[in-house]
Amino acid sequence: MIRILLADDHPLTRAGLVAWLESEEEFELIGQAFDGQSAWSGISSLLPDVVLLDIEMPGANGIDIARRIRKERLPIGVLMLTAWNAQQYVMASIQAGAKGYVLKTAPFEQLRKAICDVARGIFYIDPAVSLTENLEPVESLSAREKEVLLLAAQGLPGHAVAKRLSITERTVQAHLTSAYGKLGARNKTEAILLALKRGIVMLDELHVEQGDA
Predict the structure, then answer these.
(1) Which of 53, 51, 114 is nearest to 82 (CA)?
(2) What's the angle, vertex CA 155, arms to CA 184 and CA 189, rounded to 5?
(3) Which of 74-88, 163-177, 184-198: highest mean pLDDT?
(4) Most confident among 3-17, 115-129, 195-209 (mean pLDDT)
(5) Angstrom distance (rounded) from CA 158 to CA 171
(6) Which superfamily does CATH assign the domain made up of 2-125 to?
(7) Is the model's pTM score more than 0.85?
(8) Residue 31 neighbours by CB under 8 Å, 6+ apart
């Protein structure tokens, strides 16, 4: 069962999400928050598996909270649930450490998948979010660099990626470092977002097969 904390300052939105989450057998809603302060208090004390964060909240916004979760190295999957579709919010969220980004217009079935993916360490972006923009061309990723990046994005640790591809962990890291450099990324999640925006990686490629970890 996935333990969830919900942070949203809009009462009607929060009430609807609470009713849905409590009806889902695979989810356990362990806490609610209506502003940045109550969100951080619940996150730090309850340590949910996944926190659903609105971006715009009084006190501290969701991006600031995601950044603090990453700084404190808390083992929590951050899923942004927001009305904002602008690319700068998506990029800022991912850079802050969020594993997923879903619009409030998404159907519940899609939100269910996003929560489950983020809980498993899989990167998720709402298909309705536009990631296409005019970017400066970059050196193409090799087939192996893309393969390693995708497996890492699926939540597989270095040793599992190495085993899957019959290479060493050092080689895995070398391919990731090369991919980051070509994309102009600082970490795995930034690299995946930039690869998505450039059309190097497709959303439907971000899946995981059971038994690989």
Answers:
(1) 53
(2) 25
(3) 163-177
(4) 3-17
(5) 10
(6) Response regulator (3.40.50.2300)
(7) no
(8) 5, 6, 42, 46, 48
The third-level CATH classification (topology) of the domain covering 143-205 is Arc Repressor Mutant, subunit A (1.10.10)
Residue 121 has pLDDT above 50, yes or no: yes
* Dihedral sign (CA 32, 34, 38, 44): positive
- Weakest-pLDDT range from 40-44, 46-50, 167-171, 207-211: 207-211
| Domain locations along the chain | 2-125, 143-205
- Mean predicted lDDT score pLDDT of the chain: 87
The pLDDT of residue 30 is above 90: yes
Distance CA 161, CA 3 (A): 28
Instruction: Tell me the one-letter amino acid at 184.
Output: G
Amino acid occupying residue 210 = Q
Chain Cα centroid distance, residue 169: 24
Which neighbouring-strand residues pair with 6?
32, 52
Yes or no: say if 108 and 20 are a contact pair by the CB < 8 Å rule.
yes
What's the token pair of residue 162?
């190495």
